[in-house]
Specification:
Rossmann fold, 2 domains, elongated
């Protein structure tokens, strides 16, 4: 998201971010941007303090938003004093006019890695694989996954589970040598054959193999889908 009334600034950042595969939303005033923070998710926000005077409430809304609190906030201004105030309002990275395209490219490229890291944290890969679930009672259930993340999975299963129930799961993941074992807790169950389990892998090796597999699918999807 870019909040600015300067067409040259908007065009510069749109060009640089567009080449990085990042979609741009442009707003010319704080009030419109505030309304969008409540309804959309942004990996980064660029605020032009020279052309939009009141940014404090917008920054507060970003930091308080569940979906945008981890967004990178860039501040743009001509005067060093304005950038200092912006830093006090908790922007992450300052840009000072006049802008040099190479510097913009360099800073945004560094920020891109942080955006990807945050998105990877929430990544769930939709896939159906066999899962063996063992309940604390010793009962075994043969399930299939709906999606898998680094710390959880949604399952299709033949019986309802109890919220907070401790379980052990074993996943047969294609392309991963050996089975992946984990200990988890049931965090939701719709009582219609679907449930969610938050888990931790049973060993560091299992965690690394699962993480590498998820990374490969995550970056493949990033190539195909622009970031918002």
């Amino acid at each position: 998201m870019i909040v600015s009334r300067d067409e040259q600034v908007v065009n510069l950042f749109s060009d640089v971010l567009g080449h990085m595969g990042i979609d741009i939303k442009h707003y010319a005033d704080e009030s419109t941007a505030v309304s969008q923070v409540g309804s959309a998710r942004f990996e980064a926000v660029i605020l032009d303090f020279d052309t939009v005077a009141e940014m404090a409430f917008l920054i507060q809304c970003i930091h308080e938003s569940r979906s945008n609190r981890n967004a990178l906030v860039f501040g743009l201004a001509t005067e060093a004093s304005a950038l200092q105030r912006a830093l006090q309002e908790q922007i992450n990275v300052p840009f000072q006019r006049p802008l040099q395209k190479q510097r913009v490219v360099s800073i945004l490229s560094a920020g891109y890695g942080l955006m990807l890291r945050d998105r990877r944290r929430y990544f769930r890969y939709g896939i159906s694989v066999p899962v063996r679930l063992t309940r604390s009672s010793g009962e075994h259930l043969h399930c299939t996954s709906i999606n898998i993340s680094q710390n959880g999975t949604a399952l299709c299963l033949p019986a309802a589970l109890k919220l907070g129930e401790s379980v052990e799961i074993v996943l047969a993941i294609p392309g991963v040598e050996g089975l992946v074992s984990a200990r988890g807790t049931v965090i939701w169950d719709d009582k219609h054959g679907k449930a969610g389990v938050r888990f931790e892998c049973s060993s560091g090796d299992d965690e690394k193999r699962l993480g590498a597999w998820l990374d490969a699918h995550f970056y493949e999807q990033c190539k195909q889908m622009p970031m918002g």
